[in-house]
Structure formats: structure tokens, C-alpha cells
Amino acid sequence: MRIAIYDLDNTLTRRATFTPFLVFAARRIAPWRLALLPVWVAMMIGYRIGLYDRTMLKTRGMRLMLGNAPVATLQEAGREFAAHRARNGGFMPATLAFLEEDRAKGAQILVATAAFEFYARAFADHLGIETLIGTRWDGHTIPGGNCYAETKLARVRAWAAEQGLSLEESELRFVSDSFADAPLLELADEAIFVSMSAGKRTRAKARGWRVISAD
Fold this sequence. Notes:
Blueprint: E1 2-6, H1 18-29, H2 37-48, H3 54-66, H4 71-87, H5 93-104, E2 108-116, H6 117-126, E3 131-135, H7 150-162, E4 171-176, H8 182-187, E5 190-194, H9 198-206, E6 210-212
Parallel strand pairs: 1-2, 1-4, 2-3, 4-5, 5-6
Helix pairs in contact: 1-3, 1-4, 2-3, 4-6
InterPro entries: HAD-like_sf (IPR036412), HAD_sf (IPR023214)
Protein name: HAD-IB family phosphatase
Keywords: Membrane, Transmembrane, Transmembrane helix
């Protein structure tokens, strides 16, 4: 079995999605919350200097910018957000070429991302990808934590087990722009790292990963 797994931000999409989604959705759901953007920027700085982890950062960001918006409302905003990105060249052509190659080879394709499922689902649907593994949101908290690093690998393994598949016994391709995805990149038979950064490209090549330009 051939399995092809794609990250979302800066891999299938040209740019990150979370902060742009917060702005996009707040503009539609609660425009007054846009005045809180400087607070969100300060919170991101707090994360960068180690005051809290990604799960807490994203939880606080959701509460700050979108309040208690129902998940159904967030899903609708997610569909609009993904459509807006698609209309404006928001996908990575080089990565889409790999996606079409995997389709032609009959691969089982999935998106595994730290992005919230309520909007990542819309991106996957736009690309015709049925299986999505992302960060969950129950309206107040992130059950199971951020779908990132080892947590992402564990979620992918759980999915494979449900399908009766073994990642080790499959022909596995994984495409990502992030060193946080090293657990899956190291496991893959074909690890593809997407970056325009010379430093990151050098580090990725040193680990034996194939490197492509983000264009």
C-alpha cells in the first residue's frame, strides 16, 4: 500500500493559515474583536519566549479572537476562508504536482496538520482529499492537544491501525515544511521537505530528506 501524507501550512498552502483565519473569521463573526489583534501578537511573542505551549496559545487565540463561536459557525467560516485562498493562488504548485503523482499511483492520501480541523477540512475538500487529521476543537478546548510533532505521528498511527495498515510496511511519502514533523519525516520512505530558507534546506539535506523549493 502506498500512503502519501501532506502537511497543510506552507506545504499544500503557500502561507500559514491560523492567524489569517482568526482575522478572516473575526471580521465575519465579531468585527469588534479585530481591535484585539495587538493582544494576539503579544501572545505569540509570549509563546516564542516559552511562556506557554502551542496548545495553550491556540486555545487562548480562539477565545480572544472568536469567543464562543459555535463549531458549525467556524466550519462555515472555514469554507469561506479556504475558497478565498483558492481563488487567490493560495496553494503550492510544486506540492500539488506531487499530489497528482500520488493520485495517479493510487495512493491512500491524507492531510495531517496542526491546523484546526474545522477549517483544514475545507482545504482538504477543495483538493479532493478525503482523509484529514488535524487539531480538534470542541468549542472551548483542544481535546488531545495540538496535532504537532509526536502527537501528529501518534494520530497518524492511530488512523493507520483503524485502516488495518502498518506505516512501516507501507510505501510512505511524507511532505512537510517543518522540522517539528521530523518523527514522520524520519519514518517515511520518501521524505520531502519544502522550504525557501537556505539554512533549513541545508539542515534537511543533511538528514537525508529530499528538498524542494516553496514556490
